[in-house]
């Protein structure tokens, strides 16, 4: 499902944020990306959805080589990826329903299909009763649930989450984590960059640790391994 083959990413300022990374992730896996600040985790994640292009090497998602992908095909690629950020990135003037539906409207899905699917995913994240509310009327945890619903509404094969619990309290973080686990059980491959030691150490999954732009540890059922 995901391959990185000898990937190097060097920024114009000389910083090497990925230094010969090679990794293969199978369909249906749940993978944590961990490491100290400045280790290269964000670059690793950005390479996955073509926010950044590798300087050399190949990033292949579901058979598509992102290094050679033309810029005008990037939006099409992202429609098949679910991406969740720490800061939610919701559209402030749209309701909960409209924020989620927007992801389907841009691919010109039929209104009846949109209505049915949006309500399905809002029920999954526990927000079916708040469809008419605006983002500023929701708690941080509820906003993240909307962001997750939006990211999965088009049934992506891969979901990429960059510090999805970073701005949330512990109880809410666990609620969000339970949603991710359910999405994974339904077959979606999940990559989650996180500093949440408790979640990584409690819900054991594959752990990829990055330091200095290199993978220094890759183990199944691993622990967090760093002091926060």
CATH superfamily of the largest domain: P-loop containing nucleotide triphosphate hydrolases
Largest sheet features: 6 strands, mixed
Global shape: globular
Q: Mean pLDDT, nearest integer?
A: 93
Q: Report strand %.
A: 25-35%
Radius of gyration equals 17 Å
What order do the SSEs take from the amino end to the carboxyl end, as H and E? Answer: EEEHEEHEHHHEHEHEE
Would you identify the regions where 5 or more consecutive residues have pLDDT less than 50?
none
The CATH architecture term of the largest domain is 3-Layer(aba) Sandwich
Stated plainly, the CATH topology of the largest domain is called Rossmann fold
What is the total number of structural domains? Answer: 2
Percent helix = 25-40%
- Cα(first) to Cα(last) distance is 31 Å
Order of neighbouring strands in the sheet with most strands: 6-7-8-3-9-10
User: What is the β-strand count?
Assistant: 10
Secondary structural class: alpha/beta
